[in-house]
Specification:
Layout lengths: L10 H14 L12 H8 L3 H14 L2 E4 L3 E4 L15 E2 L5 E2 L3 E11 L2 H7 L6 E11 L2 E11 L11 H4 L4 H8 L5 E10 L2 H7 L6 E10 L5 E10 L11
Antiparallel strand pairs: 1-2, 3-4, 5-6, 6-7, 7-10, 8-9, 9-10
Length: about 240
């Protein structure tokens, strides 16, 4: 069985793509061990050193993790709460621990993708997508509103799912219900202003500054799983970096 990716690429890169596609297809579940380097090398009729190079690439990308003396496993990502790292949601009652804000689904519908959404999801312009408008609350107060888009018809069922079943974190639902595992995310931060609709949702004044986080979530094979734009109250914004 040979990799089906671009044959102009080096063999180790083609093998990396082949393994990533198998991870994206859930052939190996998160937390599950993949076959040994020797077994995979035999499957693809390549040397063990070439296969090792491909696996190391996936380890560096965070799709796989090695456990000394045990094997190589599909890494279970934990990006779902990472959006909140830009905002201060510390819970004094839990000794300063961080909590996940409550989720409230305001709108769910199938719409035609705008050029911006189509680009984010790598779809043709005019394709149908599932749009979700979601409000996040902390201690009962609105702090973030999200305009989120999912490929249709893959996520069509999301529209009719019970909100209690969905819960505050989406990535576990993507995996459990739709078979889509988020392997990586890309965030871009900018500063915006609240229009009348967002001011009403976030309980701020129109024109007040908002932190805008544009996020694309990707499967292991690099295909976008969702694209969203989150608007957060600037009084909750935090940025911390350690340089050495």
């Amino acid at each position: 069985m040979l990799p089906s990716s671009d044959d102009r690429l080096p063999m180790h890169a083609r093998l990396r793509d082949a393994l990533a596609s198998r991870i994206a297809a859930l052939e190996w579940a998160a937390g599950e061990a993949i076959p040994s380097e020797q077994e995979l090398a035999k499957t693809y009729s390549v040397s063990t050193s070439t296969m090792r190079k491909s696996i190391e690439h996936l380890v560096r990308e965070g799709l796989l993790e090695r456990k000394q003396g045990v094997g190589t496993f599909v890494r279970r990502p934990s990006f779902d709460g990472s959006l909140f790292r830009w905002f201060n949601f510390e819970d004094a009652s839990s000794g300063g621990g961080r909590t996940v804000p409550e989720s409230r689904l305001l709108e769910r519908e199938v719409v035609t993708a705008t050029p911006e959404v189509a680009k984010g999801l790598r779809l043709t312009e005019g394709a149908k997508v599932v749009r979700v408008l979601r409000l996040r609350l902390w201690a009962g107060n609105p702090v973030i509103c999200e305009d989120l888009y999912l490929p249709h018809p893959l996520f069509d069922r999301f529209i009719t799912m019970d909100e209690q079943e969905i819960g505050p974190l989406l990535y576990p639902i993507y995996e459990r219900v739709f078979g889509q595992v988020v392997a990586s995310v890309e965030d871009e931060l900018s500063l915006g202003r609240a229009d009348a609709a967002k001011a009403r949702l976030l309980d701020v004044e129109a024109g007040d500054p908002l932190i805008v986080v544009e996020r694309t979530s990707f499967a292991a094979d690099g295909a976008p799983v969702d694209w969203r734009r989150a608007y957060g109250r600037s009084d909750r914004f935090r940025y911390r970096v350690r340089l050495t």
